[in-house]
């Protein structure tokens, strides 16, 4: 059965995001719970996808571990038995989909890295010849690999609003010179390391988005989720062919369905069972390919 919303009345609810419910556990720690909600175009759908939150947690856990020597992350534990006793009564809800994480000062931007041109980047390029107002070479085609990965940040919108792509030179005004530089360099470094690993598994990471926070010592810390099929475009390398849309292991299938029904990008809709099932198949498959383990649902 899908978990659309957690119910933990003895815990202090901080936020319900598009996918995650966030609770305060101690003065220093939060509980991130990946529900089975799914969003597209910054809108949460009325249907949930049973087990999706567990897959997101497994994939994020894999990448946090993989990247831990590159950048510190916010994870304390994903094992419910290692979490404070106050959480144990909610084990049935939390098992497999929760992370106890360090409290951070979250930087108010999404750090997007694009290795290929597609999606909103391709739309802007066709209109203006730019991506995030960055001039691009002429003649690029849909899904073409870029000469170098491109850092294209966006603002973080409140629930119900849309994130806004911004030119990287606007970052210092939002988060300061130091963190603008660190965030840019680290985003490209993480993407490159993950891209090369995924390539060894036959997966192209076309683009992805990271979120970062700052701890009490001022250190940049990788936060939220990382390199999941919710936050990334994953393409099977064996079927890659530039000049057209690619088959994928991510939310693109859902986006394509919504575009086919002239979705208004404002109001969540009920999804057909076929769309739910096919999305889950894609998420389950990419979890196994990337992590080497079957998804535990």
Descriptive report:
The chain is of the alpha+beta class and 297 residues long. It is globular, with a radius of gyration of 19 Å. The chain starts with 11 loop residues before the first strand and ends in a 6-residue tail after the last helix.
What percentage of the residues does DSSP assign to strands (E)? 25-35%
Secondary-structure-based class equals alpha+beta
Q: Helical region count?
A: 7
Chain-averaged pLDDT: 96
H-E string: EEEEEHEHEEEHEEEEHHEEEHH
Q: State the low-pLDDT regions, or none.
A: none
Q: How would you describe the shape?
A: globular
Layout of helices and strands, plus pairs?
Elements: E1 12-16, E2 20-24, E3 29-34, E4 37-40, E5 43-48, H1 52-66, E6 75-77, H2 91-94, E7 98-102, E8 105-106, E9 109-116, H3 119-128, E10 130-131, E11 134-135, E12 145-151, E13 154-155, H4 171-175, H5 177-200, E14 203-214, E15 220-223, E16 232-236, H6 252-260, H7 273-291
Antiparallel strand pairs: 1-2, 2-3, 3-7, 4-5, 6-7, 8-14, 9-12, 9-13, 9-14, 10-11, 14-15, 14-16
Helix pairs in contact: 1-7
């Amino acid at each position: 059965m899908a978990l659309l919303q957690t119910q933990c009345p003895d815990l202090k609810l901080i936020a319900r995001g598009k996918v995650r419910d966030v609770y305060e556990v101690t003065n220093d720690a939060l509980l991130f719970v990946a529900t089975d909600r799914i969003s597209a175009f910054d809108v949460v759908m009325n249907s949930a996808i049973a087990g999706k939150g567990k897959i997101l947690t497994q994939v994020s856990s894999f990448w946090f571990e993989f990247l831990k020597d590159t950048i510190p992350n916010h994870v304390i534990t994903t094992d419910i038995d290692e979490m404070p006793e106050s959480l144990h009564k909610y084990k049935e809800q939390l098992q497999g989909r929760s992370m106890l994480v360090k409290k951070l000062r979250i930087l108010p931007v999404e750090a997007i890295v694009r290795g290929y041109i597609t999606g909103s980047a391709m739309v802007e390029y066709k209109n203006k010849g730019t991506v995030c107002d960055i001039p691009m070479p002429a003649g690029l085609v849909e899904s073409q690999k870029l000469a170098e990965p491109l850092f294209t940040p966006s603002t973080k919108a409140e629930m119900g609003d849309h994130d806004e792509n911004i030119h990287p030179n606007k970052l210092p005004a939002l988060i300061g010179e130091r963190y603008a530089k660190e965030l840019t360099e680290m985003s490209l470094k993480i993407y490159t390391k993950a891209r090369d690993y995924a390539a060894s598994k036959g997966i192209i990471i076309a683009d992805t988005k990271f979120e970062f926070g700052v701890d009490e010592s001022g250190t940049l810390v990788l936060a939220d989720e990382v390199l999941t099929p919710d936050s990334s475009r994953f393409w099977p390398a064996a079927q890659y062919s530039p000049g057209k849309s690619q088959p994928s292991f991510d939310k693109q299938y859902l986006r394509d369905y919504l575009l086919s029904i002239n979705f208004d990008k404002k109001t969540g809709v009920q999804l057909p069972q076929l769309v739910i099932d096919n999305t889950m198949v894609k998420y389950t498959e990419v979890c196994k390919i990337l992590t080497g383990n079957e998804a535990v649902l």
